[in-house]
Amino acid sequence: MEIIWIPIAIAGALMQAVRTAAQKDLNQKLSIMVTTYVRSLFGLPILLLFLLWVMTRGPEPLPIPVFSGVFLANTLALALSQLVATWLLIYLFGLRNFTVGTTLTKTDVMMTAVIGSLFFSESISLYGWIAIVLTLTGVIILTISRVGVQGLVGTQSGGLAAALNSKSTRVGLASGFFFALSYLFVRQSSLSLEYGNFLYRAGWSVVVATSMQVVILGGWLLWREPKGLLQMFPQWRLCLFIGLTSALGSIAWYTSMTLVNASYVKAVGQIETVFTIAIATIYFREKVSLMELVGIVTIVGGVLVFLL
């Protein structure tokens, strides 16, 4: 049980890599808000099936929990911060030079660790900090190996200074910040339930949070973009795929974050970048450079630190 969260977190990272690629494709056809909504609306039925399995898998059905004010507050904060973070991430796809911003969303692991240590109940060991730094370093190395330093800082006047002050940088950092908050509130939400094992707590947290997102964002879209809701259905196959991968990823994230610190889970989750490279290598037959191998080894090394 001590390390079961690691393979669960790796599974979550794989689902997130696939889902993000699909969302980027869907965003070419739908608005940012509708694309954000798809993951919740089409993922909720799958999450409900997961919760039903959790509730009935034992010799006797488990009781429905009594939701405390603390649980509902944490879950609402989780739902809102996740919506904002996802909206900002999808917004990045439409910016001309989003490489810096997308890379900076990966600083969510460091933000999670720092914010969690200062304001939440995250207690991070020396090995934990080493793993976090290693995985983040690996992501930066992989990014530079893919686009080069010039591609990372941009070609606009001002070079690195201009790139760091660009709109994509600000959006990327904001997205990473809200993702970090969402991870921390995932753990707070799950631990706020006074009853049940880690699957029970994770199942109820993910279902309640996603239901809140469906109601909140659904109401906003009915008011502001009613036609956008109808535009989802011609894209139902892609929407279902995003819903499936999102639900499976959420189950993995919520379960692992119920078991261990959110910052640890996100450090392992940086392996998502390795999956992206692997997909490009296998399906698009792109060659892996020496620098990319260094980045991959650094990330994997960071993950392995958790086994020490």
Q: Can you give a write-up of this model?
A:
The chain is mainly α. The protein has one domain (5-305). The chain has helices at residues 5-26, 32-41, 44-56, 69-93, 99-105, 108-119, 126-153, 159-164, 167-192, 198-224, 226-230, 236-259, 262-269, 272-283, 290-305. Helix 2 (32-41) runs antiparallel to helix 10 (198-224), helix 2 crosses helix 12 and helix 6 crosses helix 9 (167-192). The longest helix is centred in the middle third of the chain and has 28 residues, at 126-153. It is globular, with a radius of gyration of 19 Å.
How would the global form be characterised? globular
Alpha-carbon distance between the two ends: 15 Å
Helix/strand/pairing category? mainly alpha
Poorly predicted runs: none
Domains, number: 1
Q: Tell how many strands the DSSP assignment holds.
A: 0
What oligomerization state is this entry in? single chain
> What's the alpha carbon Rg, rounded to whole Å?
19 Å
Mean pLDDT: 88
Tell me roughly what share of residues is in helical segments.
over 70%
Topology, please?
Blueprint: H1 5-26, H2 32-41, H3 44-56, H4 69-93, H5 99-105, H6 108-119, H7 126-153, H8 159-164, H9 167-192, H10 198-224, H11 226-230, H12 236-259, H13 262-269, H14 272-283, H15 290-305
Question: What features would you highlight for this structure?
Answer:
308 residues, mainly alpha, 78% helix, globular
Compact overview of the structure:
With 308 residues, the protein is mainly α. The protein is 78% helix and 0% strand.
